[in-house]
Amino acid sequence: MPSLLKSARMQPDFAVVDGDDDPNEQYAAEDGWEFASVSGQQIGIRTSALEEKCTAIEMLLCYARELGSGFGPYAVETLDLVMPLFNFYFHEGVRFASAAVVPHCLAALVGNVDSATSVAVFGRVVDAYLKAMIGESDDMTFVSQLFMTFSECLMVAGPGCLNGDQQQRVYQVMVELFEKVLASINSRNGNKSAAAAQGQGQGQGGNEDEEADVDVEVDDEMVLAENEAMDSISKCIRTIVKLHPGFVPYIDSLFPYFMQFSNDSTGYGLQWSLCVYDDLIEMMGPLSFKYAPSTFFPIFSTGISAIPTSPDVAQACLYGVGLMAQYGGQEYYPAIVSQFLPAIKSILLHHLSQKKAPAANVEDEEGYIFAIENATSSLLKIVLNLHDYLVSSNISVPDLLLLWFNSMPILQDDEEATLNYQFLLSLLTSSSSSPSSPSPSSLSFTSQIASKYPLASLLSLIPNNPTPAAIDSLVHLSTMVVDSLVLDFLPRDLGSQLLAGLNSFISSYSSSQDVKSQVWSRIPLDKQLSLHKLGYI
């Protein structure tokens, strides 16, 4: 460690040579020297030393990450070394690696120092980050790294780690960055409008076209960097709200900025704001309803209707509806049932009418599939969380479950898949339960709902009556299970239980081996072989 820390502390070597002199006479390129002409002089820096410094800090990162608490004796010294390097402009890798080390050093301190020391060290960490976030606002790529690693620091420190003054400073940093990014967005949108107006006039010359192409490339790089930074900021907001319920008043003050981003429908602003809204619904729960009537409901409704042209926007909105059902509480129920449930049903019924193929007017097929899967998952979340409200509103839960079943499988969005396949497993096991199975009162709420709606009844399956429609339903059921297992993205135990539940369900429907043979004969052989290779059969 001493030699590693020494390398990490290395300072860059500089040289200044008169413009008429040859720097290679004193500073050989093979020794790592690079020169650039500045104001009649040649300024040189030995880059090999910078690479050694960067490598040393990256090694510190590896040690801190792998050793955990065992790195504790070196954690404070390493923090003192790397935090000033947030401003080390000579080498980008040094800055990024330095920021990445910090959360691992904080984690190494847990259990190795007393609480007073932890608070003091964490306070210095917060100060370093907040100063750098403002100072580096022209480098949005590094701003992204700062916010991402700052969020990791907060997760290490735990609930309530930021005091009131620190929360206010975080808020002020976000305001400054939001104003800067919004100004950039407005400037770009203004330039686009001006270019579009100019394009309606005379054609441009060749040189002007080349200059325009260069401007577009620079613009794209700037947008990408801003997008990454804003994504890290949104994750930081989520983390802060999760750990600090008292931060909600600052969210109220930030909300007008979120709404300004929502107006950026041609760029990333709208998509970003939707992700923030989703996080607020999840993290704030019923408290988020105060934003719903004026913001969430109209924006989500408009976004969902744009599924053919903007499926990514629709996906974020549909996901948000599911979060409303899961976390929003009863104040959300009327709008979910009257406004969003009909929209979800319409989307899924239209999708099924197209035989689950994207319609001809869909511009982004992959995004469209993600949106459909989120509509499917949100429908299930509505059924599970609003069950009694749906029943009291005279809405047919069996019809909703049948629509959910027909809209399955979920094969792209692995975050949503687990919940849906767990419920499918509940349907399978409750439909083929033995006399020794648990009573409904001892089951989880999800399993209790599944027990009320036997899968055979939902699918109109009459035992030992293998009609073509019945076989089709069993094939669809088997296909959704097999496809999920072949992709191997479900937890292993859930996959095994699904396959066992499927076989048990088919056997309980018909004891005839012919029925099972008919069903499996329609499962492609390559998928059956994949199940064998994965150890499922």
Automatic annotation (TrEMBL):
Keyword DNA-binding in record: no
Subcellular location: Cytoplasm
Disordered as annotated region, ranges: 193-212
Keywords: Cytoplasm, Protein transport, Repeat, Transport
SUPFAM superfamilies referenced in this protein's UniProt entry, alphabetically: ARM repeat
GO cellular component, one term: cytoplasm
Transmembrane segments: none
Keyword set includes Transport: yes
Pfam families: Importin_rep_6
GO biological process, one term: protein import into nucleus
UniProt main location, coarse: cytoplasm
UniProt protein name: Importin subunit beta-3
Species of origin: Zancudomyces culisetae
Native organism taxonomy: Eukaryota, Fungi, Fungi incertae sedis, Zoopagomycota, Kickxellomycotina
